[in-house]
């Protein structure tokens, strides 16, 4: 039998399980392939004893509508930066990539499918350069990868965020309040923007368009003057005022290089109050509700397309490539073309123009 190993890396994302299931189901149509999963990204291979899971039909039964990932994931470490405790108690890192490749050979792994965001795909490229037969599958709720039209998980996050806007509208209207809803999106404002349009928010503040607090206040004042005594502002966690920066802190998780963003909604509340907005303002931070739970039908379909394509790329030996959606096709793009290029909201794009066309204020 030939073996393909699947790993999920980085933050979880609705649709990961649908990709895993699709890989397994497509592989089952070939007589000579079996699928195994590495637990918590590549940590499962590097740990002693090795932590892997046989991914057969029984293991993936009915998982396409489950959130999370049945093989776990991690944002910490990885084969090139494995956290190591120094003798003085501080943490450093070690490159264990060669050891991991040897272990994969020992386990009889012929190919690897790595499902993850930009950070994970940089690791995929580095492993490919070391000779590993690897295929990338993109994922992130932020939809900020340039090489693919969409990532699975994004539509689910937009749906969750839109439902939150819908719910906040009724309570805001009842109490004549302003609600600030903080959505995920560290560098890209796609979730906030789509949910603001779908939910009919008054303002949408995103990292790509630093805001002028006076402009946001004017929008709210005009609305209150018209007798519509409530308002919803959707703000992406990475948004910032003109001349300011996104609010972030170091992660306390050992080996997690990512900054933890928080505080955008609270800062906006403070700024609005300072600017003289008199209405009662409340904040809601959606956080990981956007990442958990059942993927929408759209995300299940996209994730399934990605899983089937990834396994077919293994059969075609299209290693060093990542699956991507280029409407209406699912294609293979070379990993170097896919990594390090962010898909940010273009302030002059049709989507922003559409939002402005229905009166949404960006604070610009
Ligand atoms: O990249 C996806 C994402 O959900 C971002 O929107 C968010 O800033 C980040 O991950 C949160 O990651 P963590 O759960 O590791 O704090």
Automatic annotation (TrEMBL):
Pathway: Carbohydrate degradation; glycolysis; D-glyceraldehyde 3-phosphate and glycerone phosphate from D-glucose: step 3/4. Its cofactor is Mg(2+). Substrate binds at residues 140-142, 177, 184-186, 237, 282, 288-291. This is ATP-dependent 6-phosphofructokinase. ATP binds at residues 11, 76-77, 117-120. The keyword DNA-binding does not apply. It comes from Ancylomarina salipaludis. InterPro entries: ATP_PFK (IPR022953), ATP_PFK_prok-type (IPR012003), Phosphofructokinase_CS (IPR015912), Phosphofructokinase_dom (IPR000023), Phosphofructokinase_III (IPR012829), PKF_sf (IPR035966).
